[in-house]
Design brief:
Length: 326
């Protein structure tokens, strides 16, 4: 009898070993499910690593035991928590969840823009106080939105904001005109000179060395009085201390879905800051998102087993998929 064919091993890092991706059982691979404390054993001999716990930083700690890895898939758009020098310099391919979150995050941004224009925070406060107070609010028609980040999420956001009647510009590494989604793209190096144009500044860029701390006290001070910052990217792109000062004075408002520390500690001043909305890093998490993520990975596994090119390969040096200049 011929010897049985050895099936490739796929290690799956979950927040809890019992928190498993749906719909993967029919794939012709052997899965090793683990949480962070079991990752060292799970990666030994594994050719693929699925980061279902996509914010984990445990891979760096077990890298010496991961010599068989060929491919790591991250079930998130951002890969900043995964990348480290040894991985960047290796032959291991990194893929991400490109495309899964584009429309949901764009919808979140549109909702935040409308909520700001319609003064929803004040309405919620008045309802709790049982106070009937008639006010006039703004229209989003003709309002100006500056979208920082010209990748897939930024582009989906730009298209949806345009459809709602907003004027949109993008912010990328290189300025250019005649972009199909943004019209005009301005340079991120000149951000403080550009934000004064916008009623809404939307952060949708990956976290890299170039974007960390990009929105600092100077940029916040240059924003138009009464304008609105939306962060659906990563917390460290914004100087949170400077932002607290800016919203406390009432100069600007903000909607934040991401933070320097997550979960946001209960005693953090952002919870009670005026003119600020906090959500729990959920802008892309619509009902069924886990099924979509698992199906996307299963499709790539099938391609990998067939020797076909993988989808959504990340440029490890840049830290994102280079789909046009960002």
């Amino acid at each position: 009898m011929p010897a049985p064919v050895e099936r490739p091993v796929v290690a799956v890092l979950c927040e809890r070993a019992t928190d498993r991706p749906p719909g993967l059982d029919g794939l012709p691979v052997d899965f090793r499910y683990c949480s962070a404390d079991g990752l060292r054993g799970a990666v030994q001999g594994a050719r693929v690593l699925l980061l279902w716990d996509f914010f984990s930083t445990a891979v760096r700690d077990v890298w010496v035991d991961a010599g068989s890895l060929e491919w790591i898939h991250v079930t998130a758009a951002g890969v900043d928590t995964l990348l480290f020098d040894e991985l960047r310099d290796s032959a291991v391919v990194v893929t991400n969840a490109h495309g899964v979150f584009d429309r949901p995050i764009a919808e979140y941004v549109l909702g935040a823009v409308i909520a700001h224009a319609k003064d929803s925070l004040r309405s919620f406060d008045l309802q709790r106080e049982r106070r009937w107070q008639h006010r006039e609010t703004r229209s989003v028609l003709g309002a100006k939105a500056l979208v920082v980040g010209t990748g897939a999420i930024g582009r989906a956001t730009a298209r949806l904001l345009r459809a709602a009647g907003l004027q949109v510009r993008g912010v990328g590494r290189v300025a250019r005109g005649d972009d199909p989604d943004f019209g005009e793209i301005v340079a991120s190096s000149n951000l403080s000179a550009e934000v004064g144009w916008a009623d809404h500044v939307v952060l949708a860029a990956p976290l890299t060395a170039a974007t960390r701390g990009l929105v600092d006290a100077g940029v916040l001070a240059a924003m138009r009085p009464g304008s609105h910052l939306v962060n659906v990217a990563r917390g460290p792109i914004v100087d949170e201390t400077a932002l607290l000062d800016a919203v406390a004075t009432g100069r600007i408002a903000a909607t934040l879905d991401v933070f320097d520390r997550e979960p946001l500690p209960p005693d953090h001043p952002l919870w009670t800051a005026p003119n600020l909305t906090v959500t729990a890093h959920m802008s892309g998490d619509v009902i069924g998102w886990r099924d979509t993520l698992a199906a996307q990975f299963a499709d790539n596994v099938s391609r990998w087993l067939a020797g076909e090119p993988l989808l959504n390969i990340v440029d490890k040096k840049l830290g994102y998929i280079p789909t046009g200049d960002r």
